[in-house]
Structures are given as structure tokens and as C-alpha cells.
């Protein structure tokens, strides 16, 4: 694979060597479907998607889980950057989005997935231009859409996603994730750092050990909303139709059974986490296991409720987070790019590569010294 020059989109131009360095990490990982997740509007997610597609010579597929966001930024009044697929890119979007974009492409297949913007179609980009990408609305449909893009020849599929719709990062759809953060994540730089690090903690929850995984069989996990494992190692399915709104009930059952491990079969919400940790006795040692990080329907900082109480939160299927990208934009005044970048690199440490693809900044775990060179006095 050979990377070429970066391309311009909106009013920002990606730095070609930095994009090439980011893509090398993705290419070396051998992921076939990559979710690019933005933590907030204006985090630079579309810029990252565009730069990856335009800077590297391979056939990409592109889709989304639903429609991500408005066409005009409500804060700045400016048009949001749209996706500019290079000729030959395989795009899965809706009929309505094609019409709204006035974008022409060779339609290869129409999928039987209905959305408010019409059916999902797969086509091949044949000209320069910008297109609104809106995909199927369910995880099962998104998985099939990715498979159909691959069947039409996509060597790698980019799934445009957002933190409030983490399904695109599910291991059932994507086998790699890039996270985009920016100055709009918090009101202050400290809040940006806290939220970004908490989100990475959530997305990179550790995988359960084989011994813990073996405590409950697949059939029980598929049929029960929650399974508690008692002190003798015996699994006890809880009689619940859902765990949503049942934090108090589940906590009391954990105590009654003297359970040391709790498997949650569905979504884990903020209300459940708060009620569960409130009722559970202090310093109660417990392991809570969920399917993967995408079922955590709660703010990333809520995860700390568990760790502060000595509860280990683990997953059956870990996500593979490959890199963090940063965008210093904020209203009314952007952060200085080098100041913002260094603050995020210092907070993330060596756990992930960090990139600012517009300002040409990169920090790889093995090259921290070069990436964190002294900031000029005018910073």
C-alpha cells in the first residue's frame, strides 16, 4: 500500500505524512472494518475519515449507523464538513441522502433496509464531490451492510460513528476503532482531558479471564438478562425481563447469593449503575461482566462509580482501539494546537498513538520524546 498526498475538505487540509503515519498503524493491524468514533460534534471525525480515504491507495468502503448529526453547525452557523469519497470508493448510504447531496454514483445494489431517508443502496463513487452518508438504523443491518461492501470489493470499510451510538464500534461490526476528540468535549482543557481519558477507559475495558468466562455457558448468557455466580461457583440466572431500572433488585440478589461475579446480558445504563452501587455495601468485592463496551449506555465518567467501589468492570469481547485523534477547535477561541496536543499526549501516556492530522502532530508510544518537544514561547 502506497500513500499519496493529503486532500483539502472544508477549509482544512490534512498533513500527508501524519495521515500516512496514522494509516500505517491501521494497515499493520489488518482490520477489515474500522469504526471512527467522534466524542462530540467538531471533534474532527469527518476530517479523519476523509484523510484516510483520500491519502491512501486502496479500495475503501464507507457507511454509517444512521445519520450522524445536522448539516449546519448550530454553534458556528457554518456548513458541517461532508464526506468526499475518492473515485472508486464503495459507499453505502440512503436514497434520500444521495438526493439531498445531489451526488451521482453507480448504484450496485439496493439493500432491503428501510430508513426515514429511504432504502440503503451501495454504489461506486465515480466523480469528485461530497455526499451525505446515512446508513441502516440497526446493528444487525449495519453488520450485513459491511459484509455487502466487502463482497463488492472493499478492502477495508470505514464506519462513521459517534459516541452516543457506539454500536458501530461493536466487535460484531468492526474489528478496530479510532477515537476522535476535540476542544468541544468540555468547557475547560481539564474537562476535555478528563472526558477523553474516561472514554478511553470505557472503550478499553479488560477482557475477562478464561476461568471467569467459563463460569457461565453461552445458552445461559443468551437467555438471561443477568446471571450471578455465588461463592461456590454456581451460576444463578436472575428472574428479570430486563436489568434497566432494576439496579436495586440486582444488588439485593447479589448480596443474597453472596455472588462474586455478575454477568449482565443487555445494556447497562447510568440509572442502573447509580442504583446498583448505592445499594451494594461499601468495599464489596465484585466482578461485573458485560458483552462489550458498546452496551454501556452511560457517560464514560460513570464507569468510575464502579472502580471507586472496588467493582471490577470487564467485557467478554474487548474493543481494539488503534489510535486517538485530536482537534483543538472550540468556540469562541480554539486552543493552540501544540498546547492542546501535548496536554492530551501527557494524559494518555503510552497507551495509544495520538495524532492531529491537520496540524501535522503525531505521538507514537516509541517516539514520545520527539512528539513532546518544547512548545515555542508564543504558544
Explain how this protein is built.
This protein folds into two domains: 8-204 and 319-371, Rossmann fold (3-Layer(aba) Sandwich), CATH 3.40.50; 210-315, Cytidine Deaminase, domain 2. The chain is globular and about 65 Å long. It is α/β, with parallel strands linked by helices and 379 residues long. Helix 1 (16-29) crosses helix 2 and helix 8 (247-256) runs parallel beside helix 9 (270-279). The longest helix is centred in the middle third of the chain and has 15 residues, at 189-203. The chain contains twelve helices and 19 strands. It has helices spanning 16-29, 45-55, 95-101, 139-151, 189-203, 210-213, 218-223, 247-256, 270-279, 303-308, 337-348, 368-371, and strands at residues 8-9, 12-13, 33-38, 60-64, 90-94, 105-115, 118-125, 156-162, 176-182, 226-229, 235-237, 261-264, 268-269, 286-290, 296-297, 311-315, 321-327, 354-356, 361-363.
Strand order of the largest sheet: 6-7-5-4-8-3-9-17-18-19
Number of domains: 2
State the major sheet.
Answer: 10 strands, mixed
- Alpha-carbon Rg, integer: 22 Å
What fraction, in percent, of the residue positions are helical? 25-40%
- Low-confidence region ranges: 1-11, 368-379
First and last CA, distance: 37 Å
CATH A-level architecture of the largest domain: 3-Layer(aba) Sandwich
CATH class of the largest domain: Alpha Beta
In terms of quaternary structure, the protein is single chain
Tell me the structural class: alpha/beta
